[in-house]
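User: Structure please.
Assistant: Input sequence and predicted structure:
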Amino acid sequence: MNIRRDVFQAIADPTRRAILLLVASQSLTAGAIASNFDSARPTVSKHLQILTECELLKPEQSGREVYYHINATKMKEVAEFIEPFRKIWDKRFNTLEAVMKKYKPKN
């Protein structure tokens, strides 16, 4: 059975978010990524597989090594989807902040 991976389920996992942060600054091999975690290498490989299936990472063969790169296009799609929600919550928090500034505790 071929299960379609959901990008939001993928980024819901803290380890996968940490992997994305690592790879955002430089391309890394699976071994280099795994060395940053206490998890077993197969566990990190599974995380890499999920991120690759969601197209958040792009693997690139270079000789015997596979380097993982961030897929900026896919990350941009995710950011663009989230942006309207961020604006809504920013507005709500700004409104709450304005109310709290007017609030005077009773002594």
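Residues 72-102 form the longest helix (31 residues).
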